[in-house]
Design goal:
Length: 148
């Protein structure tokens, strides 16, 4: 087998492993609830989240996971799924959280930012009087980045 073909196959295998790891992390994060009365989910992830207090608002009992949303963006129909969504009725804010398992925060950053902007575009139609804030949770170091 040529070196070029070996490199292509190796690249595909790495991408497949990364995709599988990302799906596994999403599934585990989807099941976490942290509140004063209840804590559910993977204990290692809960400990990570608890060590970053700015993340707690995303994992309370009022958070929604895998929220489907659809509408038109620039005249084209779009259907998306939001990893975590929190609607704060008191402050009239909506918090959108997108999990990213990438180690590099720059490789696809523009794509990720555009994805969150699409969520904002769809949500503003439903909640016109709310401030919509978008965040990326970088799961490799549990840092939170606000992008909107």
């Amino acid at each position: 087998m040529s070196n070029k073909l070996s490199e292509v196959i190796s690249s595909i295998e790495k991408q497949d492993r990364a995709t599988e790891a990302g799906l596994h992390a999403h599934a585990k994060l989807q099941n976490i609830i942290i509140d004063t009365d209840i804590t559910l989910g993977d204990t290692t992830l809960i400990a990570q989240i608890n060590s970053h207090p700015e993340l707690l608002k995303f994992f309370g009992t009022n958070s929604k996971t895998e929220v489907p949303i659809a509408g038109y963006i620039n005249g084209r129909f779009a259907s998306r799924r939001i990893d975590r969504l929190v609607i704060d009725e008191k402050t009239k804010e909506i918090f959108v959280l997108d999990y990213k398992t990438d180690v590099s925060k720059t490789a696809f950053h523009d794509d990720y930012t555009n994805k969150i902007k699409e969520y904002q575009s769809l949500l503003v139609e439903i909640y016109p009087n709310y401030r919509i804030r978008g965040f990326i949770l970088w799961t490799h170091d549990f840092s939170l980045e606000e992008v909107l």
